[in-house]
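QA checklist item 7 of 12: single-chain prediction sanity check.
[x] sequence parsed
[x] length recorded as 329
[x] structure emitted
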Amino acid sequence: MDVHQVRSGLGRAVACTAALLSFAGTAWSQAYPARPVRIAIPFPPGGTSDILTRVIAQKFSASTGQQFLVDNRPGAGGVIATDLVAKANPDGYTLYMAFVSHAINPFVYSKLPYDTVRDFAPIALFAVSPNVVVVTPSLPIHSIRDLVAAAKAKPGLINYASAGTGTNSHLSAEMIGVMAGIRMTHVPYKGGPQANADVASGAVQMHIPSMPVTMPMIKTGRLKAIAVTGARRSPVLPDVPTVAETLPGYESLAWYGFLAPRGTPAAVVGRLDEEVRKALALPELVDSFSKQGADPVHMGPKAFGEFIGAELKRWGAAVKAAGIEPGTP
């Protein structure tokens, strides 16, 4: 047998192996899911992440014929749920609903039990939502300009609530402080609902919570919305300006996406991404998300991975500017 015959034989073998692997991946994708899928969420029931994930999980269940079960695992700033998924079997049956805190935690905690990038396979981004700056209704503050003026007149007098140190609501407020050159006093809570309640009562003056769970209190007048944190005005609050209209360049978004453990087969990741794409095309899902103040937005695995990388840079800089010292989960 001459060298050409050897090369030809090797070429056929490689082609055959590639075909078998492709067939195996396709078969796996077609068979998946063969049993219920668990989606771990790093927050308790009733919050924005929970609401949006349950809506899209129902569409996955209807499309695939298998249950997609939401598993609320709050605690340690989201680290408990994240670590659970990082260490799960990479077979596509344990997923993580990643929130913006996924890109914040590496900078506010000194040591995480997982690697934020290396230990996960991005699947898809499925929604974004601006936060909303709310104040106590009785205060004579109606805009970011008013807030800045009040804080400059009496530095440290304005108290702002957050869902906890190092959370999106905390850093969103710190970004305003840094960009406006003002000093406000941080009052951390163990979650957004109690923070909202105390702003409504006047115990603290300001909070920057997620829009979906805050809209009922805005509509009933218990909270006064003075700005949204996205780059453009929200169709849910069209008369409320953006923070960037006063502080150009400001933007802070809550985002929601799915991750799988590292090593999850590409065919399964692709199948899940396709399910996200299909769900976001459903008018009833778009309507449901819109009523919550969230925008359905799709990014596939590659784009979502790049997005997370950009968010890590954004929030790393914000944590540094805020002077937050890393602690323990």
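[x] summary fact logged: DSSP finds eleven helices and eleven strands in the chain.
[ ] second reviewer sign-off
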